[in-house]
Amino acid sequence: MSQRREEIISQPIGPTLFRLTMPMLFALIAIMGLGLVDSYFISYLGTNELAAIGFIMPITFLVSSIALGLGMAISSLTSKLIGAQRMEIAARLITDGFYLTAIVALLVTLLFSIMLESMFLLIGADQDTLPPIVDYMYVWLFGMALLMITQVCSSTFRALGDTKTSAIIAITMTTTNLILDPLLIFGLGPFPELGMQGAALATVIAVIISAAIGLYQLGVKERLLLPSLPSLDAFKDNFKQLIDIAIPAVLANAIVPITAAMLTTLVARFGTDTVAGFGVGIRVEAVSLMIVYAMSATLPMFIGQNLGAEKPDRIIAALKLSFKFVVLFQLAIYLILAVLSRPIAGLFSDEPVVQETIIWFLIIVPISYGLSGIVILINVSMNVLGKPKIALYINLIRFTIFYFPLAYIGSQAFEIKGLFGGIALGNALAFGLALILLKRVLREIKITP
Q: Has residue 51 got a pLDDT over 80?
């Protein structure tokens, strides 16, 4: 661990960030593949089963958001302690963080078990889709706590500067799921045919294996999971520190899908074909920003360890380098998407309205991805800089004051093209706000930008 720390606080910044980020890029590809794998095999069961997955996804996203918030809290605090070489305190914090995760996970599992059917009826499931939802969820709930612990394990390894192990956990989970899905869903070979329950069981088994790898590495190899129980006062102190970061982080994550749903309602007034084209654009956006998401998993750890090691110059240099790279990389992505917009649209649909929607999306919205990427990096950096509420405020203002209202105004004035222009302008304004607040925070904590 000391070798990893020395590299992060002393080695050339560009190569170090590249080395840390590449494993996370592969991990993200694996995570995105997990949902696609499930959807692909379940689609063979029928329309109701595939629709059931559509209803299940928001719930699984909510669980992931909670786990990501807890993981972000643990990694933000731990990275600074590791940078300051306070390993005993870091181990106690990590251990208490896992206790907290287990408590939250069990409470969420209990809540979902009690209100499972009513919860899905509330979000629009009908009597046709409810049975496959129930079949899936009652099995999936057995692994939900371990799923959250697995995600927290990944975040903790990133805090240590060990992005390879973090990536191995994600890739193992996806690969195991890919192997088991057809066996348990369709009953191939000696395996029973379990349908939706088989899909859920494949995920649970994959989670158990991934959690075992993560907990073994963290507890046995790194010796950062302590066998002793914490004192009540120490646990209360760590609990407060973790919750102060976790709650704003969870809320900031939750704003994104809510805004996406609101935007979809705006797009829906232009017709079903336009919604289909918009959906394709959103999926292309997720792929286009993948390198930014990978960087958002590693930049906070780099900042945290250098903050703990009292090396502010490296923090400023890393931020500047990351921002420049994101702008140039996303500009190149924009040029590719704009030039190839028509062939890309043709891959997804033969319908003229769907194609036109995809084309205009790719010509207008991605020009702002560089600025949007910087906003994402600033938001995750705020957590490790000790200002998680500012990250929440940025997201709130970005989506409720800039993003959605400008998209609405644009749609009224220039229809779908105006809506896309409003999204791009909202990203630009959010960038300006985020940059101003970042500079203010850096001055406040005595790091001169």
A: no
